[in-house]
Design goal:
By secondary structure, this protein is α+β, with helices and mostly antiparallel strands. It has one domain (about 1-475): Orthogonal Bundle (Cytochrome p450). The protein has 19 helices and twelve strands. Strands 1-2-8-5-3 form a five-stranded mixed β-sheet. Strand 10 (about 450) and strand 11 (about 455-460) form a beta hairpin. It is globular and about 70 Å long. The structure holds protoporphyrin IX containing FE and 2-acetamido-2-deoxy-beta-D-glucopyranose (NAG) (2 copies).
Length: about 475
């Protein structure tokens, strides 16, 4: 026993010595960005996690940027990682996707997503499916096809709210119904949609298991749920193929996948749909919840938003759907959405892997190293946004809040992997806010806090007490 302990000690010590020697020599040779690799093996992972579990994770980045500058080296989640808080570098990373960098996810995530999900695909197939997805959710398709359903489904959901609701749960229900409708033309309320969603929630939980996935019951449950979801989707694909043979056509994403000249395999279609559901579901629902939270905490902004939407509603009958022209006449709403995206940073940044030694800003990122392009660090940087840490939708009014918003504001990423759902997400949010403020008033039911790890969310799913706004009140306002 004692020998064993001694051996273990020796092994650990030599690993530590090797780690520091290796670090010193490689750093000098390659001019790595400066930084601190922290402890062997775990690096600075624990500092990162504990910062992001609080309402204010900024010090983790601030401290390092102050010491080392906006590009620094750290060691998180098992690997040395170059961290960029610099908008130019971030842009360079995004635009060189597939040339100098490629997206990179741990195996635990790839197994859940499936290898034919857009997020994991590369090369020509990625290019084809990315543009297919872009055209499925582009503004003319939303205007002609999707907007009616978005309006109807959101309205139906809001009309069922009474008393205390957990906004985060409700928003998730809404975005799931929307995605399922848009991807496969399934209407909500069916037991199929609800039971699929339950399995889905389990899959999503699997993405955020931090401990070793093989030992985690959450992760094993997620893999099982993924199999079930994939089976359900396979059945739908088979059915749809039969319908098409019988001459029936549906105007949705699945239809587009089956109609093209590309012969996609069943596995490809299932993986693709499954990942699209993941990408569109969590993100949009959290942004919905946080927009309401920030508005609640900023009464002046909420009042101005209400005014904008009461004016639009005033020209319509009670249940008349919003049209594209209405969506286009909500300038303040767009400011609120941008500001929510900026402050909340649902996708705090993206991980990539260097495909070759990359030289940038006088440093070298060695081939095979991970990089993290932090959008969050840029969006909350005082140099780029005045008073960057506070929620101020008016900053977007004349773009005075942002030095050059186009280049530094990247909530949806950019380059070949630009989020294909960016317009869809904005429309869904706008319609949601419209019906929310014209139909309901609310107060928070409990104090709730934002946390940023493992994902951005509020601790208590944002419980609120809702009341219907009377018609007479709407006229007086
Ligand atoms: C507020 C809501 C959303 C935010 C903040 C967001 C953000 C992002 C970001 C930053 C990326 C880039 C990831 C990377 O470069 O590695 C991305 C990719 C993606 N998003 Fe979104 N997204 C949102 C909503 C949606 C919606 C509604 C859809 C559904 C159509 C969607 C589908 C996708 C897909 C499929 C990708 C992968 C693209 C690729 O790798 O080629 N997203 N999203
Ligand atoms: C949107 O995509 C459709 C094909 O799905 C295409 O015909 C149309 O030109 C696209 N519109 C825009 C504005 O890109
Ligand atoms: C909001 O952000 C987008 C980039 O995602 C930008 O194109 C747009 O101009 C911004 N809106 C306003 C009102 O500044």
């Amino acid at each position: 026993m004692a020998t064993f302990t001694f051996l273990l000690l020796c092994a650990t010590l030599s690993a530590i010595i090797f780690f520091f020697l290796f670090r010193a020599s490689r750093c000098r040779r390659l001019r790595l960005p400066p930084g601190n690799l922290g402890l062997p093996f775990i690096g600075e992972t624990l500092q990162l996690i504990s910062a992001y579990k609080t309402e204010n994770p900024e010090p983790f980045i601030d401290e390092r940027v102050n010491r080392f500058g906006p590009i620094f080296t750290t060691h998180v989640f098992g690997e040395p990682t170059v961290f960029s808080a610099d908008p130019e570098t971030n842009r360079f990373i995004l635009l060189n996707e597939g040339k100098l960098f490629e997206s990179s996810y741990p195996a635990s995530i790839s197994n859940l997503l499936g290898r034919y999900s857009l997020l994991l695909m590369r090369g020509g197939l990625h290019k084809r499916l990315h543009s297919l997805t872009m055209s499925f959710a582009n503004s003319s398709i939303i205007k002609e096809n999707l907007l009616v359903d978005i309006d109807r489904l959101i309205r139906l959901n809001l009309d069922s709210w009474t008393g205390k609701v957990f906004l985060m749960e409700e928003a998730k229900k809404i975005t799931f119904e929307l995605m399922v409708k848009q991807l496969m033309s399934f209407d909500p309320g069916s037991t199929w949609t609800e039971s699929l969603r339950k399995e889905y929630v389990l899959v999503i939980e699997g993405f955020f298991t931090v401990s070793l996935p093989v030992f985690s019951t959450t992760y094993r449950r997620a893999i099982k749920a993924r199999t079930k979801v994939a089976e359900a989707l396979s059945l739908i694909v088979t059915e749809r193929r039969k319908e098409i043979e019988a001459g029936e056509r549906k105007n949705d994403m699945l239809g587009a996948l089956l109609a093209g000249d590309d012969e996609f395999s069943e596995e490809q279609i299932v993986d693709f749909l499954l990942a699209l559901l993941v990408a569109g579901y969590e993100t949009t629902s959290i942004i919905m919840t946080l927009a309401v939270k920030f508005l609640t905490e900023t009464p002046l902004a909420l009042a101005q938003l209400k005014e904008e939407h009461d004016q639009i509603r005033g020209k319509k009958s009670e249940n008349e759907a919003l049209e594209w022209s209405d969506y286009k006449s909500m300038p303040f709403t767009q400011n609120v959405i941008n500001e929510t995206l900026r402050v909340a940073n649902i996708i705090g940044g993206v991980f990539r892997r260097a495909m070759t030694d990359v030289h940038i800003k006088g440093y070298t990122i060695p081939k095979g190293w991970k990089v993290f392009a932090s959008f969050r660090a840029v969006h909350l940087d005082q140099d780029h946004f005045k008073d960057a840490r506070s929620f101020n939708p008016w900053r977007w009014q004349d773009n005075s809040g942002a030095a050059s918003a186009g280049n530094v504001f990247t909530p949806f990423g950019g380059g070949p992997r630009l989020c294909p759902g960016y317009e869809l997400a904005r429309v869904e949010l706008s319609v949601f806010l419209h019906h929310l403020v014209t139909r309901l008033s609310w107060v928070p039911a409990e104090e709730d806090k934002l946390v940023f790890f493992p994902t951005t969310r509020t601790q208590k799913r944002y419980p609120i007490n809702v009341k219907r706004r009377g018609v007479s009140k709407l006229c007086k306002d």
